[in-house]
Known about the structure:
mainly alpha; 2 domains; 17 helices; 0% strand; globular
Amino acid sequence: MQTNNQKPQKLFDKKALAVLIGPLIIEQFLAVTVGMADTVMVSSVGEAAVSGISLVDTLNILLINVFSALATGGAVVSSYYLGKKDEKKACMSCNQLVLAVTGLSIFLAVISLLFNKAILSGIYGHIDADVMANARTYFYLTALSYPFLGLYNGAAAICRSMGNSKISMQTSACMNFINIGGNALLIYGLGWGAAGAGTATLVSRIVAALIMLKIITDQKKVLHIDRDIRKGIQWKLTKEILEIGVPTGLESGIFQAGKLMVAGLIASFGTASIAANAVGNTIASFEVIPGSAISLAMVTVVGQSIGAQRYKEAKGYVFRLMAIAHSAIAVLNLFIMVFCRQIVSFYSLSPEAAEMAWQVAMLHSVCCIAFWPPSFTMPNALRAANDARFTMVISIASMFLFRIVLSYVLGRYLGLGLLGVWAAMVCDWIVRSLFFFARILTGQWLKHCR
């Protein structure tokens, strides 16, 4: 034990940060690239199947964000108690996370299975019969996978909380490649179409959940689920998880709904704008990979520092991780900017769409270097300090005022079209950045610490 005269050792030195962040970057890169390959493979099953799968995936993203939000809440709480050296309570919080995320995912799965057609019809209205048939098939199969996906997300968060992101990276890689292999066999080999895509997704998530379950039940791990899980829900700990998870889930869900509203505006600009926006989004997903990875690391590092009551050290880690995020995104985006036209040329776009795709990709590249990390990486530091409500309020307000309202002003009324929509998105980033930076600098983010 350190005495008062000894300088306490840092919770995370350079090597520990590298060990944590490296696998997270690889995991995010795999998720993006394998996701793109998955989309290409699914596109071979025909227009009706692709449309049906796309409709369900839009809905699935909303539900996946709920699981991820709960996982974030669990990661914050378990990291806090781990930093506090209360390993017993840290493990108890893991028990509650697994119970909460599994219970919620089972509930959502049952609702989705029972009201499959009603949900699809209620959201999308009247759609072609063949599209609806494919959507219903794919929805049934992916709904069956919700409990396994929920368990995987919860377990992955537990692994990251103890600084072992390598496990979640390896399991994620396994899950993604099983999905790709399953698609190849069931879609190309057996011609199952949407059913093949859904089955491959289901099997890959079952395997990933079983692997992670074996890992988090290992009693030798610092964080694990133990026999106390049989006691069921312990509301005090569950409430701590929900205090982070509910605001984060609401923020993510409303954010996705806002993106759908903006997508409707873009659709009104014509086919070229829709195609250019799709390509721009694909390129943009690569441009923010380092920031996405470091946002996950932020929960672990800041959460443990807060738990250890090393508030000055926590603030130092925030700025160190932000510097890493800015630097990594800058290097990646400078490369993308140099070869942006060549990247856009890989897609079969009309000259008009190609020019728009280049414009929005370049705008995103330039602006995300400065504004994406404080908008989306920094908020996890606030969540780790139990300041999730602030991030929720700022994010939702900024999204409505700038990402949605300003998109209509710039895109439609000022005639800037797709470029105006993306410019409004950048304005949203700038506003978020200002509020989140101010919150950190003034120390207000620490006032809700336990």
